[in-house]
């Protein structure tokens, strides 16, 4: 299939990405139900999440490779540990899971030539090679995909939020983002209602939400970040204290006069929540460990925010730079919010930083 043989730019990529993310979401949900519930909640064993991560990356990369064989992929996982003898048991589970997922019946709208559906099982070597298609180093030019097969692994293990995140970049600019959130309520106003959403954004074409159960035939909900007041504004932030400096968020909220408590959500589901107006600001400032943010943790989310009418930058107001390899090497923190609030948040971050520096004298 030619890269863009349908009406809109990136139409083919969008359909493939949605189909691939949906399959990976079905896989990870089944890993949770079969493995995590039984094993991990009773003993602190991380192997189910590893199985899910690897198998989801194998599935998505297999699907991408079939349709866009020349596109490099920057994926979180690599298969080195699965190629050695001690990785055999894990490898066997991954191969079974990936093949069950690739061979599942076609959904309406999925095409046989995409490499999905009955009799599309792969050999062990093909699947390990597919995982290693994610080893690309990234860079400034050309097309590349970024993939986080299970973003928010800690949320996944807790049975809370996690996301399957896929993005297409061209010359280091994100053009397409697809995020699958199997555990996210379809509407924040009905938290105990139906769950499972896919979020899609294409450069210049807006952002929308689909139902995970019926992504190609179902209803599309267009996403727009609403206007917030100080009273209605709330912060979206990580659950994990080691991933973002939550005390700093508290000070920035105070400076902005925010009265609502923050909403803590694992993974890029925060970007999805922001894009549909469940929260007003996503702030993620470094804890000071020297950690560099990974491009697969922000690429899909960043275009979702922009196409919903918002702005994303680092904590200094600089654009995110996806051209520097596998990390956002030069950026410092993340600020994502509506256009009107963004300058105020950057100013508040600056003030909180200055206070922090003053208190350390
Ligand atoms: N010290 C750190 N600072 C910031 N992010 C970190 C971190 N250690 C791990 N992470 C990233 O935080 C992601 C989860 O983000 P969140 O806190 O928003 O749920 C992890 O993704 P994975 O779960 O895919 O490994 C990981 O990439
Ligand atoms: Mg991640």
TrEMBL record:
Cofactors (names): Mg(2+)
Any single Pfam family the record assigns to this protein: Inositol_P
Alphabetical GO biological process terms: phosphatidylinositol phosphate biosynthetic process; sulfate assimilation
PROSITE patterns: IMP_1, IMP_2
Superkingdom of source: Eukaryota
Family matches, as InterPro entries: DPNP (IPR006239), Inositol_monoP_metal-BS (IPR020583), Inositol_monoP_superfamily (IPR051090), Inositol_monophosphatase-like (IPR000760), Inositol_monophosphatase_CS (IPR020550)
MF terms in GO: 3'(2'),5'-bisphosphate nucleotidase activity; metal ion binding
PANTHER family from the UniProt entry: 3'(2'),5'-BISPHOSPHATE NUCLEOTIDASE (PTHR43200:SF6), PHOSPHATASE (PTHR43200)
Reaction catalysis annotation: adenosine 2',5'-bisphosphate + H2O = AMP + phosphate; 3'-phosphoadenylyl sulfate + H2O = adenosine 5'-phosphosulfate + phosphate; adenosine 3',5'-bisphosphate + H2O = AMP + phosphate
Protein family per UniProt: Belongs to the inositol monophosphatase superfamily.
Keywords: Hydrolase, Magnesium, Metal-binding
The protein's Enzyme Commission number: 3.1.3.7
Protein name, UniProt field: 3'(2'),5'-bisphosphate nucleotidase
UniProt binding sites for Mg(2+): 76, 148, 150-151, 297
């Amino acid at each position: 299939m030619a890269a863009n043989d349908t009406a809109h730019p990136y139409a083919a990529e969008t359909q493939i990405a949605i189909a691939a993310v949906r399959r990976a979401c079905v896989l990870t949900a089944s890993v949770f139900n079969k493995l995590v519930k039984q094993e991990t909640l009773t003993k602190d064993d991380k192997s189910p999440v590893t199985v899910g991560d690897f198998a989801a990356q194998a599935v998505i990369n297999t699907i991408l490779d079939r349709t866009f064989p020349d596109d490099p992929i920057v994926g979180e996982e690599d298969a080195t540990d699965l190629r050695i003898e001690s990785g055999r048991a894990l490898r066997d589970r991954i191969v079974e899971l990936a093949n069950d997922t690739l061979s599942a019946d076609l959904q309406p709208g999925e095409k046989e030539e995409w490499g999905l559906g009955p009799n599309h099982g792969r050999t062990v070597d093909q699947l390990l090679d597919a995982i290693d298609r994610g080893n690309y180093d990234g860079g400034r030019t050309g097309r590349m995909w970024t993939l986080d097969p299970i973003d928010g692994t800690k949320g996944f293990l807790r049975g809370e939020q996690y996301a399957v995140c896929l993005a297409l970049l061209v010359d280091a600019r994100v053009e397409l983002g697809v995020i699958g959130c199997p555990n996210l309520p379809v509407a924040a106003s009905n938290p105990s209602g139906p769950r499972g959403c896919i979020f899609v954004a294409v450069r210049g074409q807006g952002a929308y939400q689909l139902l995970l159960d019926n992504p190609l035939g179902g209803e599309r909900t267009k996403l727009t970040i609403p206007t917030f007041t100080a009273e209605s504004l709330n912060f979206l932030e990580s659950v994990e204290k080691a991933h973002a400096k939550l005390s700093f968020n508290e000070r920035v909220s105070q400076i902005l006069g925010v009265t609502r408590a923050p909403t803590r959500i694992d993974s890029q589901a925060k970007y999805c929540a922001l894009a549909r107006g469940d929260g007003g600001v996503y702030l993620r400032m470094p804890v000071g460990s020297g950690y560099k943010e990974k491009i697969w943790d922000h690429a899909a989310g960043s275009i979702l925010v922009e196409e919903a009418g918002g702005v994303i930058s680092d904590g200094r107001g600089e654009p995110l730079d996806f051209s520097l390899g596998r990390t956002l090497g030069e950026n410092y923190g993340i600020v994502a919010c509506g256009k009107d609030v963004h300058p105020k948040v950057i100013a508040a971050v600056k003030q909180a930083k200055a206070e922090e520096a003053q208190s350390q004298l």
